[in-house]
Amino acid sequence: MKRRAFFPWLAGLPLFALGSGMGQETSPAKKLKITMKSAWGSDDPTRASFAFIHGLALAEAGHEVQIFLTGEATYTMRKTTVDAIKPVGWPPLSETLEKVVAKHIPIFS
Fold first, then answer.
1. Is residue 50 within 8 Å of residue 40, measured between CB atoms?
2. Are 36 and 65 a contacting pair, CB within 8 Å?
3. Which of 18, 42, 78, 80 has its CA 20 to 30 A from that of 29?
4. Which pLDDT band holds residue 24 (cuts at 50, 70, 90)?
5. pLDDT tens by residue, 32-74
6. Nearest CA to 93 among 36, 64, 54?
7. In this structure, what are the phi and psi dihedrals at residue 63, rounded to the nearest 5 degrees?
8. pLDDT per residue over 1-10, tens digit each?
9. Which residues on neighbouring strands pair with residue 95, listed in sequence order?
10. How far apart are the C-alpha atoms of 34 and 39, rounded to whole Å?
11. By the 8 A CB rule, do 108 and 67 touch?
12. 3-class DSSP assignment, residue 69
């Protein structure tokens, strides 16, 4: 019987929680410092582009981004390699890299 006496109070709890959130102000989004790391090279053009594509999206969202390339990914800094990388479903790496440079996102290799 004690469960039945407790249940009506429990059933009203979600409604109480819903009403308590009204009128609260949301805090501004925190600016994050993000390092994008990649080791993918031209042998997998889509994965090779992800560090640049995601880094650019995060920078446009207002975060502080830097890109760190290691291994095969260091070859993506050569002009001929960049021009040859065309990821599936994304713009060519040359276009993305131009936007990354325009945003002054540091690239370390």
1. yes
2. yes
3. 18
4. low
5. 999 999 999 999 999 999 999 999 999 999 999 999 999 999 9
6. 54
7. -90, 160
8. 565 565 555 5
9. none
10. 17
11. yes
12. strand
